[in-house]
Amino acid sequence: MSSIPHATHDPLANVLKANLEAFNTLADATLAGGERLVALNLHAARSFLVDSLANAGEAAGVREFQQLLKLQTTLVQPSVENFAAYSRSCYEVFSQAQKDVLKFVETRFAAATESVASALDQAAENAPAGSEAAFAAAKSAFTAANSAYENISNATRQIVAVAEENLAAAGDATAKAAGTPAKAKKAA
């Protein structure tokens, strides 16, 4: 027989179930990012192998030093472009994974905030007379903490936006140096 009274067992079971569902959501988002990164790396490895074999075949046909220099020059540009494209793709995978985790955290934080606010309201309603000031102070502190969180969250979003713009500019500069237009996408 369970030592937990039935009245407290259901809320506890609900909390455990909600936490398991939250963990599952976070694990799914994390694994999806990992799968995208593995697929990207397999594609990059396959492309590298194909390109390397083709380049080796071309190099094997070279008979003069000048031809080798010309071949080397023509092979460098695609390599730089491929590396830039791979780097952008990696960034997009990590950026999407970060957005998925951030969305999860924000959703959980909002639910926790609502739960704490509700608990404070219920406690204030059931509190003895004269405790209004203590609950008003607690609500004020809670509101201030939420406001600080929102300010930090907004500042972080702005920093991420600037970093993404800088990354796109760096990609443009790299592509320009390689002699081709950048294909960088701004993350939404």
Number of strands: 0
Number of domains: 1
Assign a percent range to the helix content.
Answer: over 70%
What is the arithmetic mean of pLDDT? Answer: 83
Order of helices and strands: HHH
Largest sheet: none
Poorly predicted tracts of residues: 4-8, 181-188
Structural class by secondary-structure content: mainly alpha
Q: What fraction of residues sit in β-strands?
A: under 5%
| Computed Rg | 28 Å
How far do the termini sit from each other?
54 Å
Spatial shape: elongated
Count the helices. How many? 3
Which descriptors would you attach to this protein?
3 helices; mainly alpha; 188 residues
Q: Could you characterize the architecture of this molecule?
A:
This protein is mainly α. The chain has one domain (14-178). It contains three helices and no strands. The chain has helices at residues 6-60, 65-126, 132-178. Mean pLDDT is 83; it is low at 4-8 and 181-188.
